[in-house]
Design goal:
Length: 504
């Protein structure tokens, strides 16, 4: 199959066509023309030194000029502590203005930031530190990482003379992020300055992000969603953001009302809770709501659209690639679909062996895509002609909208037929007694694997009733053969189901 071909599941638009479908006449301009985000940021700041950039829950704004000064000061402290360009800085603390300053200062000095989940205990964070070998750590609690020199988010180290700033090259590593590991052991993902710039530039254009926008940022800053989309994108657009230390429904809605926010990005868990709030209509003050990091259930999409008055944008990205695909800002935002390729991104589907309704593995390339895993592991993640194998499975609608149907490692092969978990989950979620569900494959001596539904019940419902519901609506090979009731589904910090914990 050539780069331009896709399986019968559908044909994705060529890059120029996708760009036009996002509302533009010409092909995408050079997304990485600025070279690096720090250079682009400082250029923005110099043009509007008094413009507000970041605020915390207290509502005190840091201006562009103040942010430039504070990040330069912290960069000087890193340098005085002996850190040099290319050294690694492990960062794990709750989202705050101080943490954002510590991160931006590190990138300006040319350090490699290693963001780590704040839920990690000493064993987990220690494993990341062993692989990353940081020269310094920025931690909310130094006891989490004994044996590694550390400081708090305020980086209260001795000041030093002003170091050289913003000199990193586009191909230099800016972030070393460890994958969430929902389908295997976490891997180190080096992301270059050019990778980060390409992602921020593509969504700046596609989502019409301007200096007049204000983002409510309630996502953690240890993940690419909050860090690489929320914080980086805000600063590139010359916009402003209210950084909240955690997600709380009323806290988010209060911040929108008080600050005049126009944007919010969230994971499905956040949107489900907002959709259930009696204050849901207050989200209507935003010009754009974006959901990502995990699939948004169509029923939540519909509830949000009814309550807000406009549909959210669902998009698709990965740690290794940044943002890849998004529903259009202008035009149909389709429930159950992640939309069209973003500017500068190429997407194709590669057929998967097996019978049943077809789907293909999603392959991508572009300036946003990383160059390979830390230590050279996973060399087979790229095709011979340079396409990254995402490990996600998708189908394309006839008009080119992409739908994610699962992970390749989550594909269930039963009796020689391919079963994509999301196909079954969407049917079972239609039953009024199902609050949540995840479908997994478990070993079976006759079928190879059998389809098992792990269900969180919202009402009294029996396994036989759910099996009959599925039998009436699914092809025989897709029907669950077993229902397991659970109190809740295991999820990681971004709301993705950890299916390996269910398949035992």
């Amino acid at each position: 199959m050539t780069a331009g071909q896709v399986p019968a599941a559908g044909r994705l638009p060529a890059p120029v066509d996708a760009w036009r479908r996002h509302g533009f006449e010409d092909a995408a301009s050079d997304l990485v023309a600025a070279g690096t985000l720090p250079r682009a940021w400082t250029d923005r700041w110099a043009r509007a030194l008094g413009a507000p950039t970041l605020a915390g829950p207290d509502g005190n704004w840091v201006s562009a000029g103040e942010l430039e000064e504070r990040t330069a000061t912290v960069a000087g402290r890193y340098a005085a502590a002996g850190l040099r360009a290319g050294d690694r800085l492990l960062v794990s603390a709750a989202a705050s203005i101080d943490l954002a300053v510590a991160h931006v200062a590190a990138l300006r000095l040319g350090l490699v930031v290693v963001p780590v989940n704040t839920a990690f205990g000493p064993t987990e964070i220690g494993a990341v530190a062993a692989a990353a070998r940081p020269a310094l750590a920025v931690l909310d609690d130094s006891a989490r990482l004994p044996g590694v020199r550390s400081t708090g988010p305020d980086v209260a180290l001795p000041d030093g003379p002003p170091p050289a700033l913003d000199e990193a090259r586009p191909d230099d590593t800016a972030l070393l992020v460890f994958t969430s590991g929902t389908t295997g052991a976490p891997k180190g993902v080096p992301l270059s300055h050019a990778n980060l710039l390409a992602t921020s530039a593509s969504i700046e254009v596609a989502w019409r992000w301007t200096a007049s926008d204000r983002l409510v940022l309630a996502l953690p800053l240890f993940h690419v969603h909050g860090l690489g989309v929320g914080l980086h994108g805000t600063l590139l657009a010359g916009a402003s953001a209210v950084i909240l230390p955690r997600f709380e429904v009323d806290g988010v809605l209060d911040a929108i009302a008080v600050t005049g926010a126009t944007l919010m990005f969230g994971v499905p868990t956040m949107w489900v809770r907002l959709a259930a709030s009696p204050r849901l209509a207050e989200l209507g003050a935003l010009r754009l709501c974006v959901s990502g990091s995990a699939p948004l259930d169509p029923s939540t999409f519909a509830a949000l659209e009814a309550g807000i008055g406009s549909p959210v944008i669902e998009r698709y990205g990965m740690t290794e690639t940044g943002m890849l695909v998004s529903n259009p800002y202008d035009g149909e935002r389709r429930a159950g679909s992640v939309g069209l390729a973003l500017p500068g991104v190429e997407v194709r589907l590669q057929e998967c062996a097996g019978s049943g309704e077809p789907a293909g593995e999603i392959l991508v390339r572009g300036p946003n895509v990383f160059g390979g895993y830390l230590g050279g592991v996973g060399a087979d993640a790229f095709t011979a002609d340079g396409w990254f194998r995402t490990g996600d499975l998708g189908r394309a609608d006839p008009d080119g909208y992409l739908r994610i149907v699962g992970r390749s490692k989550e594909l269930i092969i039963t009796g020689g037929f391919n079963v994509y978990p999301r196909d079954v989950e969407e049917v079972l979620r239609g039953h009024p007694g199902v609050a949540d569900v995840a479908v997994v494959g478990v070993p079976d001596p006759e079928w190879g694997e059998r389809v098992v539904a792990c269900v969180v019940a919202s009402d009294t419902v029996g396994a036989d009733e759910l099996l009959a519901w599925g039998a009436d609506r699914l092809a025989p090979y897709k029907r669950p053969r077993e229902v397991r009731f659970v109190d809740e589904l295991p999820r990681n910090a971004m709301g993705k189901v950890v299916r390996s914990a269910l398949a035992g």
